[in-house]
User: Fold these one by one.
Assistant:
Number 1:
Amino acid sequence: MSFFSTRGGACVTASQAILWGLARDGGLYVPSMFPQISPERLSTLRGTSYHNHAARILRDFLEDFSITEIEDAVQAAYSLDSWDDPTIAPVKSLGDTTHVLELFHGPTLAFKDIALKLLPHLITLAAEKNNEKREVSILVATSGDTGKAALEGFKDVPGTSCTVFYPHGGVSRVQELQMVTTGGENTHVIGVEGNFDNAQTGVKKLFGDAAFHEKMDAQGKLPSSANSINFGRLVPQIVYYFTAYTNLVNRGVLRMGQHINFVVPTGNFGDILAGYYAMRMGLPIRKLICASNKNNVLTDFFRTGTYHTHRTFHKTMSPSMDILVSSNLERLLYEAADRDGAQVSSWMKQLAEEGSFSVGAQRIEKLSEVFWADYADDNMTAEEIRRVYEQHGYVMDPHTAVASCVLKHYREETGDPTITVIAATASPYKFAPDVARSLLGDEAVEGLDFFACAEKLEKLSGVAIPHQVRDLLALPVRHDTVCAVDAMEAAVLDALKK
Ligand SMILES: *Cc1c(COP(=O)(O)O)cnc(C)c1O
């Protein structure tokens, strides 16, 4: 299998796509085809471990990796030292037709761990395969969760470094503490005086800047990406769509072959795109429901066919979805354009120059056969956290609650009775103050710090506070650099010199 660029160029191997992150023409790498998992093969996966599902699914995409390399990488990434559930992504049930796929049992309590525990292994293998001797310098823009997950994944991995840019003041207290207390000799954390889109645009600019590449090269460094634009981030996420499915079949909730829906809280469109890839590989998915917060640019896109980013940026209590430019949508556009890279290029050019583009009625109608989209603002999200707790005794984080709320809208509007899985992307403890406030009201949390709020949640849910949250109280702050949006290049070069 080879990889093309969404903008028409490139024909590279899987290891090159993973090592380089972004194609030279600014496009994203996409697989030349979707390997098929037949119903028979799906049946043989049923009842086997997460690791087995992962190795089986990865190996068809990563053709220039050996099966042993993939199996070893999977074992290392999903070892029980780092995960507090042996199934990695357990499925909880809220009644017969609604199930919650918990993707937050890894080291940083958000679903990003699933990909970022594996990516460093794939990147170091990819560097070897391409005889790359330079240090692989990972540059990351984060809306809150990717940063810590990348830092944990790459911390002290030989031959790599990891530099994270986050919107200063734009992430939750727990997210910020998690990042700035990171240990390791090769980790760097920099606050940007701007929002996530500024940080992401800044990092993308660096990747596209030949002069920056030369300066890095002179320092013996190869810039690479751990954002979800990297195919190595995307492919591990396909796996849990399959494990969720076989898990429900195993428990007798689903018949093999029966269709299901997934509702996914969406920001950069990586998670839900992995679901779309799973569907293209043959997983019986009927609808992928795209849930946004008040930054509802994707809702508008799926309803009108027009993507427009010139709008107010809202800070919400689901900060990992506070995004107006969803990078991975480009991969879906590539499929919607019947793999016409020139068409995608022209849309992306319009987006860069005018802040919007339209794909036309016919294409959006076609996409609507699979995708449905809506959003929930902070009030609806808080109410949903309360409703789910009252009805099911289950405490959701705000991102997951956005998805749950949008699922409610979907069912009200369509009456679709299909069994649906909610992708639960973060532990409620990661956003303890907002979750506690949603459940108990403003007065009950007035003046409480995140840990006191976590203690309230522990009492309500009966789920113990994860050690990662307890640990934050004792760890020293090791990173305190803040830079302006236009000073990101200097900040990286400076950090990497140290
Ligand atoms: C990153 C993130 C999302 C959004 O995922 P995308 O792949 O960017 O769409 C949702 N919820 C949480 C908790 C996240 O960390």
Note: DSSP finds 23 helices and 16 strands in the chain.
Number 2:
Amino acid sequence: MTARPIPLGPGATAWAPETVTTDPYNAQTPSAALAEPVTPVGAFFVRDHFGIPEPDPRTWRLRFDGAVEAPFELRHDDLLALPHRELDVVLECAGNGRGMMSPRPPGLPWDQRAVGCARFAGVPFRALAARALIRPDAVEIVFAGADAGTVRDRRVHFERSLPRAAALHPDTLLATRMNGEPLAPEHGAPVRLVVPGRYAVADVKWLVGIRAVTEPFTGVFQAEEYVYEDARGTPEGPVTAVRVKSLITAPEPDTALRRDHETVVRGRAWSGGGFRVCAVEVKAAFQDDDPAPEWQQAELEPPAGRYAWTAWSFRWTPHRPGPCRVLARASDTHGDTQPVRPPWNARGYGCNPVASVDVVVV
Ligand SMILES: Nc1nc2c(c(=O)[nH]1)N[C@H]1C(S)=C(S)[C@@H](COP(=O)(O)O)O[C@H]1N2
Ligand SMILES: [Mo]
């Protein structure tokens, strides 16, 4: 593991995520924490479908079986003894932004803060796969969490699958540490999956089971939930790659800015599916602007790795007074740009509209 300092801001210990629901516990990252390059663990959003199981690392076992030649069980110490890789990764809930969709789909009403970027250290899944000897006819790998509950009248564990190739990618990690500390209970202690570039539903917490399967997995969180559906409920494919997105961290909403004084508009941008952010554009629109202003390029800082988010900034001097909307949109190396109005879907996934903040110039 490479030892790099973790740039936690002042008051890092005072962070607390903003509760959305208490049972199960769901909370979003406070706005101030999004200004940090690495989101403090105590501020990082939490998405739980069931209770937090808190497995005891001393009795924790990870079972790897299914369509493999050499099934085995690992203890926590065995896993810790394997070589770890460290990656800064953006985790974003597929439902992030749902609360701003209209009409509002059912589900947790996240605004745009079910997102964070953390430094994960973990054992590449492929190291375990090499030991289990996955059979050639295995098409997917199913990852099971220790948590369970009732969904659609069925008692289920939280389970998700990955296509074989995605699981075997060297950056698919069984993470044991987050921001230099052992995983916190709410983030999947003692071990969770981290799959960079996919919506965070892929990142199974409290991992206890891995099995190779020869047919595509149809568990409830794979084939029923986390699927894009049109207004009639017709499935349009599973939630996979994170869509390009940005957020504005400064100025804060409703800030009064001084006319003819420079202000710095700042934020973060990220994308998934192996694509990187290549541009962020900003514009400031006064209500009666005619013609509408042009988009202008923001400056990008190099991200802390290929799966980390990109900090951007734009120097702006407003020359007239009035209420104004500051907008930002990111583009990625796939050629996608944040839309003004993302395609509506019945469950409110992948909502990545142009970011905006309303301010007033005085
Ligand atoms: N075992 C388990 N893993 C899980 C979940 C869960 O409910 N149970 N929620 C998933 C979803 S939908 C998201 S967005 C991420 C959230 O990770 P975090 O709580 O560490 O931010 O965990 C994923 N992994
Ligand atoms: Mo999620």
Note: Residues 243 and 271 are 6 Å apart (CA to CA).
Number 3:
Amino acid sequence: MLLASILSFLLTTILYCIHHATPADASVPFLEKNQYKLWAHYSPFYPVEPYHPPPRFCSITQVNLIQRHGARFPTSGSSVRIQASVEKLKSANMFIDPRIAFAANYTYDLGANDLVPFGATQSVEAGQTHFKRYGHLFKNDILPFVRSSSGERVVLSALNWTLGVATASKHTYNPPISVILSESLNDTLDDNMCPNAGSSDEQTGEWLDIYGPPIAARLNAWAPGANLTADDAFNLISLCPFDSVAHERFSPFCQLFTEDDFEGFAYSGDLDKYYGTGYGQPLGPVQGVGYINELLARLTGKPVQDNTQTNRTLDSSPETFPLNRTFYADFSHDNQMIAIYAAMGLFPQNAAPNPTGPNSRRTWRVGHMVPFSAQMITEKVQCGQKEYVRVLVGDAVQPLEFCGAGPNGMCELDKFVASQAYSRNNGDGDFEKCFS
Ligand SMILES: *[C@@H]1O[C@H](CO)[C@@H](O)[C@H](O)[C@H]1NC(C)=O
Ligand SMILES: *[C@@H]1O[C@H](CO)[C@@H](O)[C@H](O)[C@H]1NC(C)=O
Ligand SMILES: *[C@@H]1O[C@H](CO)[C@@H](O)[C@H](O)[C@H]1NC(C)=O
Ligand SMILES: *[C@@H]1O[C@H](CO)[C@@H](O)[C@H](O)[C@H]1NC(C)=O
Ligand SMILES: *[C@@H]1O[C@H](CO)[C@@H](O)[C@H](O)[C@H]1NC(C)=O
Ligand SMILES: *[C@@H]1O[C@H](CO)[C@@H](O)[C@H](O)[C@H]1NC(C)=O
């Protein structure tokens, strides 16, 4: 037993040294390890694929960006739960494994809800990237039209994005935020308008009961007397990304968990979003309908037609919903972006994710879909006389089978519009079910 512990410690130390010998991005130390890609919706943004422009002889004529706020502190609810688990861990009688020894003197010092500086930086970088990529669409009198949901971290992410555009353009283009949509009113950038929508607690709970207990058992063996449960294990895993993005270092909590543990955690994020506002939630996709109808209005240059979450007053005025811009940028939340993907038909699944365990070939991976600073970009593309639509998530071109796209992922504009019947029909009666 003792020998096994010593061997395991030596092996870990060797592996740790090997890891640390690899080249590091000194500015953001936790990005030196690929582990952050397993942090699900708490992963910092990274491109899933390098950006590829549309085919030659085509040009982009309009861009519609919807972006998640940047990295943040835990929400106030999870902050309370995480702190309770940290206190349990600290109350252990002893810390046997060297990886957990730090816990004795660890002080929890994170805020709640707010954007962290690293999240602001990634928002600035996104603005710079988008200016470099799409700057030809910016002209003096055609600034990007920017809207934000009213959550403070969302507005600050939008402001930091506009700062990125301003700095990348050497302050030639300084777009303001034109509209802030209150999260207590009609808001197409938040999932705040469907009181009857259910939650994913059943599915995530079922999965936690499977992957969580062995992790808790290991931590309890390393820290006898802590009496950690599967819920504590979940809270402490989530502290790895939160502590890392807050302090821009690789949190000591990350080293408590194996790649398998993180895969379990990532799958819990996949289940959470699928059954929260995705295809597994009967009233999930309908919450994305308002945004899709706004998108169709912009793509076709015709007034918004929607009876769901839109603010009709704002959307019927050219001041607050113009149709003559070339770049539209909206700032939102992960749950809302999932609803929008589902309303559009992105990431279709042959089978629902099973709460008893992941399919390793699944394409529903929230780390790709809604990391911090996640981006969905709908490009309107002109090729000769014809207009097309292309959709990118994390810079990866989406296949758009639902409107007959070929290998280049482009659908004719008319076919794209036709494919969005669920939204054009205001969710086929689902929106009413949000209330009745
Ligand atoms: C924790 O702090 C105490 C008092 O400063 C110190 O003696 C101890 O070595 C520290 N433990 C660890 C694991 O850093
Ligand atoms: C960017 O976000 C940070 C919060 O992390 C905020 O303090 C700062 O004011 C924002 N920048 C702009 C230009 O608003
Ligand atoms: C767009 O329309 C608005 C409202 O009619 C007008 O004030 C503005 O100048 C137009 N902008 C461009 C770039 O055409
Ligand atoms: C619509 O937007 C206007 C302008 O911001 C606001 O005064 C009004 O309260 C909003 N109404 C709803 C229901 O969202
Ligand atoms: C931890 O669990 C053990 C065994 O169930 C129990 O005797 C002990 O009182 C618990 N300790 C705490 C701090 O809850
Ligand atoms: C807000 O949305 C509700 C539900 O669709 C709708 O009845 C109401 O007219 C909307 N209000 C505005 C100002 O658009």
Note: Residues 1-26 have pLDDT under 50 and may be disordered.
Number 4:
Amino acid sequence: MWWTWNPEAQRLIAKIDMLLWEETNHNPIQFLRQVKTSQVEAALRDPYTLEFYDRIMREYDAYMRGESCWYPEVYPHLRNRPVAYFSMEFGLHETLPIYAGGLGILSGDHLKEASDLGMPMVAVGFFYTEGYFSQRVTEDGWQEATYTHQQFVDLPVLPVMAENGLPETITVSLPGREVSVRMWEVHVGRVPLYLLDANVEENLPSDRTLTARLYSGDLEMRISQELLLGIGGVRALRTLGYNPSVWHMNEGHSAFLILERIREYIEAGHSFDESAQIVRSSNIFTTHTPVPAGNDEFPLWIVDKYLSQYWPLLGLEREAFIDLGRHSLPWGDVFSMPVLALKTSEERNAVSELHGRVARQMWHFLWPDTPEEEAPITHITNGVHLGTWLARRLRALFNAYLGENWMERQDDPEMWARVLQIPDEQLWALRRHLKRKLVYYMRERARRRWKQGGVHPVQIIASGALLDPYALTIGFARRFAPYKRANLILSDVERLLSIVNRSDMPVQIIFAGKSHPDHEGGKLLIQQVYRMIKSSDSAGRLVFVEDYDMNLARYLVQGVDVWLNTPRRPNEASGTSGMKAALNGVLNFSVLDGWWREGYNGANGWAIGGDADISDPDQQDAHDAASLYDILEKEIVPLYYGQRSPDGMPGAWLARAKESIRSLGPQFTMRRMVKEYLDRLYLPVMQSNGQAHPAEISMPKRG
Ligand SMILES: *Cc1c(COP(=O)(O)O)cnc(C)c1O
């Protein structure tokens, strides 16, 4: 996957056949299978392309050899102490649809950065053969979901084979049967990611679809998946020869790994308490959910049905087992995955400062003798992987002004301060280029959709056919969960229209995002927004683009002028799309929630509402909407159009964009984040566990 964060490598492929590269949705494997021999031969005859090829391959080889990597130089004695990273989803690239949203993008970015730093890490997730869904919106604004069966031969995944030439499998017990699971390997640079897949011939037909889709199905499907991930994941790593020093659970979905690890120690002769203690000392848990209802919990009848067979293996009776994850609610007890993970981890963290506060409040009941503010949940604010999200041309501009090895110094504020030296003309030309690129891309999508047929003409307008490449453009792209309040900006339609429709200062807003297919509330929100967009009053300046994915996300976070985010505080644990935008010189316009509460400094974007919680949601909506309209009308639009130099450049706007990159760059990259996980969570765990892992070689070499 190295090519996914090295745009020059992508350009090399695109140079051979640009159209095919787009048609295959940036899938190099499909590309290589379909590309015409004559195109390849033409490339082979071009000395410039060959030289380009040699350079890319040299860079790739040097990267994979990992010679001058940060981690092995600083921690040579910890090179063979891998961190095992478990997550339900991984967002690495649009060709591998095994992610739904922010949680997955964070996991994917985390692996890429671990690879860049040379950290020993191995990751476990699922190979969803039908992925997450593709989104279509009907003329009436109703979201339709379609699933496509993914062929592994088309994807950058390799089967893990046993010595007998058959797929390597492990098994996990589900009620009344053993389910076999095979593994696929993805090379995230130097970090291997193993994807579990229950689509194996010896399984019952109903079990073969257990891992077909992400976040789909009922609670029994969910607990089955989580048993495969947690228990199956540990077994998979053991089969592959890993003995990780740290076990990092990204959200509670994988917390059953705790049971399997305790079972291993019991089998080796330890008591339950000793085993639980050892296991706990190497676990790390990251929570992402500030909404109690969003947490992963199971009714006890499901726990009885699915887990009673594990109790004897752990030497536990029912009540003692339930106690591991017991969450007492007014309507009865449930088994909570985050409770299991919180109680059985050495270190626990939330993903922003405010989210830390909310998490301590939410889980304080687990530590009744500790004051709430001392509940042992810290926070590490999220970040984004620079190579993945930075526009290629902006990299080139940074190469010219930030100093030679700026990529290696991305957590150094002094390096970022050099952004102020970029001449306005160059930054402005680049920002205009990126916006044009976005608009042409959207028009091209609209054209393709029109040509496919089956759509009403108004849908073509709604999808961006009338976009203006020079108008002030606002992006709003995220999952349509009600707390994200996509409709906040529609709360005073008249005022909104008066802002967007000024012919001397037009404003356009691009919406994108999926709702969970089973969530009526989210789909109704899309419909509400879509109906407004379709109306002729909006004059084609409001747009909804279907099928938000990483590809569209790159176009949007690089191409718009302003990134809008309106969550109902404090429900946005962190948010990361605004960080991607900021690094590209896009200005954030957001509620002071999650990361933006830490990033906003008064001069690098705009804050909607204030830094206080309002408990009545209607009051909060009204308050935030008023703030949103005021700032948009009186500050953002005039700053963009008003203060232009004779040659048409908005100097004050560009100063703000530079301030945004300067101040946010050092704080919100994945490099800062991963180093913080390492210093504050991984290293303490590794160092206190020196004796628990006498075998130094815990990192097998696989071909
Ligand atoms: C970055 C990203 C997200 C997460 O963004 P939020 O700010 O958390 O809403 C979701 N989906 C895609 C495709 C992304 O690229």
Note: The pocket of pyridoxal-5'-phosphate is lined by residues 101-102, 105, 478, 548-550, 553, 575-578, 580 (CB under 6 Å).
